[in-house]
Amino acid sequence: MGAKKILRFSYKAYDAEKTFQAGELEAESLNAAHFVLQRLGLVPVEIKPVKKSFLATISERYDRQRVGDKWASLFFRQLSTMLAVMNLRDALELMSTTAQNRTQKKILQSLLQDVTLGKTLDEALSKFGAIFSGTTIQLVVIGHQSGRLQEISLKLADQLERNYQSSKKIRSAMYYPTFVIVAAFLAIGILISTVLPVFAGFFDGQGDRLPTLTRLMLSLGLFLSTNIFLIVVALAAVVFALVFCYDRSDAFRLLLDRLTLQLPFVGRLARQTHWMNFFGSMAFLLESGVRIDRAVEMAATASNNSWLRAELNEVRRSVESGGRFHSGIFPSECQGLITSGESSGMLPTMLERCEKLCAFEVEELSNQLPVKAELLGTLTAGVIVALIVFSVMLPVLSMGL
Fold this sequence. Notes:
The chain is mostly helical. It is built from 17 helices and 3 strands. A hairpin with a 5-residue loop joins strand 1 and strand 2 (20-27). The longest helix has 52 residues, at 347-398. The radius of gyration is 27 Å and the shape is elongated. The termini are far apart. 29% of the residues are buried. The model has no long low-confidence stretch (mean pLDDT 77).
């Protein structure tokens, strides 16, 4: 089983009323994009992959940073409130006049212009894929087709805000332990490369009589102090190679993502965070009227882990062929809830409970993470400092000083 890379396609199609439609969507392949359009009731005329230049990618990331991660949820919350009393065009016009910064205003004016020219909101949003995900855009399509855009916008706002809060919590939990570990290794590097070599001249007369540990530490300090530039370049090259392989090789990405999930503590946190977001998205999609197989596909596409995404695609294929949604890849504490939800017809409710269970564990793991990382950094620094002290003291003791 291999992980599929999610691609972006532009399309031209006609709906059931012979109205021309154009836009972009995300899918695993050209055939998958064709299948998605058929599910949406569109007859495709042209589908082609979207190739973004390096500058376009940088521009999208800059726009996302400027508007902020929380802006998408605020956009849909405002849109839902305004659609209760005015039409879509007037709502976008009012929002563009009250935008908080230049980038937000630019995006809202672009949306307003497209809607004024007769495009649907999902077509207008598809220009800003770095801010509005493919799943978000497809939910807007469902809102248009069902006449429930206001309701869908409110649910989208709630879901995007939950995702933002969970991501913020994980990032906040990682800041302090990352700082502790990096600071520990920097301190160790300074001790080995600058402090220890000071004793080298003092020990020169000892020659081969120096203890093995002392000779090793002196050699390491000399190597670090004389090759620091080459070490930094080598580390940068390794990081670049890993990022390049991760981006270009499906097999490497699948292997690395699977290994990440098997790490002792961080892997468990990553798994529970993924399942929390997945179950929340599934409950939201099912409550919005999306078929279960389509909901699995859309929720799986939003996953950042290629191995879990591949596993969920197997679940989707099983559901499409008439099988059950229940799968052994789900957390053990959630499997009973999912089974009972399928049997009783209350799957969205049970998935919400699964989300809360995973959210509770994510909270617990997030609270433990800084303590464990601080302990790891302290122990690592302590062990290496002890080695340095012993490497200095052993020859001193051997000389009877």
